[in-house]
Amino acid sequence: MGLLVEGQWQDKWYDTKENGGAFKRPTTDFRNWVTPDGSPGPDGQEAYEAEADRYHLYVSLACPWAHRALIARKLKKLEDVISLSIVDYHMAENGWEFSNRDGAIPDSVFGKSKLYEIYLQADPAYTGRVTVPVLWDKKRGTIVNNESADLVRILDTGFREFADNGVDLTPAALRADIDAINETVYHAVNNGVYKCGFATTQEAYEKPFDALFDTLDMIEARLSGQRYLVASQYPTEADWRLFTTLIRFDAVYHGHFKCNARQIADYPNLFGYMLELYQWPGIAETVNFKHIKGHYYTSHETINPTRIVPKGPVQDLTVPHNRERLEPPSITAA
Ligand SMILES: N[C@@H](CCC(=O)N[C@@H](CS)C(=O)NCC(=O)O)C(=O)O
Fold first, then answer.
1. pLDDT tens track of the chain, all 334 residues?
2. If you count Cβ atoms within 10 Å of the first and of the last residue's Cβ in the chain, which end, N or C, has fewer?
3. Which atom of ligand 1 is nearest to the CA of 28?
4. Which residue has its alpha carbon closest to ligand 1 atom 1?
5. Is the CB of residue 131 below 6 angstroms from any atom belonging to ligand 1?
6. Angle CA(201)–CA(203)–CA(209) in degrees, nearest 5?
7. Are residues 132 and 83 part of one domain?
8. Residue 191's domain spans which residues?
9. GO molecular function terms here (predicted)?
10. Which residues contact 83 (CB under 8 A, 6 or more apart)?
11. Active-site residue numbers?
């Protein structure tokens, strides 16, 4: 695993030394937008017009950030509009690579073997980490955006002419509530598990550990009284962003990242909520435990040098979730 420096691939892991052993997630570089008519994005971002078969999504089924984008593409029924590549789950000295084993889908845009070659197509002098997800513009021959939070919004709002608009992941009336809970969940949970797992000192590990479980406890209490994270009739973006961490938690974060105060299965409300989202039409087919467990346990050599992939946990994710008892509100919050 590594990064590009002025267009040259270097096999390097995250350097935590300058941050006292703490993992600091780098910022992403490609932040343009897609809108129905090419007018600027919500914060004035440079944007391109939505068109069928113009955009290509590169994801990993292991990655919780890419999983968000994959879920948005699925829920908005954009599978025939935006083509897809799925990288191999094993990330080694060349970073993410393409293959066709175990449900991976090769690069149909360029036929490249490594994801960093796609970044170099966009910018031959690129410096930065080579991450998934990536939305590629086949017409302009460059990356539109490689930030999953943006990609979920782009897929939710940018492709109106082609999408299932009965699904609105960010209803305007709930946007402020969604943004607020996203912020908490991002720092303490989505990124929190990484801060625990990638820490290289005891102190850098313990702080995010406490914040993670305090936040999961808070969410457990919230979900005892309401069906979803915000007062919505249907899952919103906030729920899907939490879901991709929850579904990996017991299988990977609990052991591999040492997030082991509790499992999600120990939280009755969080577990039922996770089951409901897993059982939501189309979602189970986006969840691939071979990729999830295979990636984390075999790619992070410093954390798991033997590369043994644990067989457990043994969990049946198809059992009734019993969340119907929490009636969603009939009117969305104003
Ligand atoms: N900010 C990015 C982060 C994406 C990210 O870190 N993806 C990981 C996989 S879970 C990755 O590709 N890592 C490769 C690396 O850092 O070298 C997003 O949310 O889209």
1. 789 999 999 988 777 877 888 888 777 789 999 999 999 999 999 999 999 999 999 999 999 999 999 999 999 999 999 999 999 999 999 999 999 999 999 999 999 999 999 999 999 999 999 999 999 999 999 999 999 999 999 999 999 999 999 999 999 999 999 999 999 999 999 999 999 999 999 999 999 999 999 999 999 999 999 999 999 999 999 999 999 999 999 999 999 999 999 999 999 999 999 999 999 999 999 999 999 999 999 999 899 999 999 999 999 999 999 999 997 776 554 4
2. C
3. 1
4. 147
5. yes
6. 105
7. yes
8. 172-280
9. oxidoreductase activity
10. 53, 55, 56, 57, 108, 109
11. 63, 194
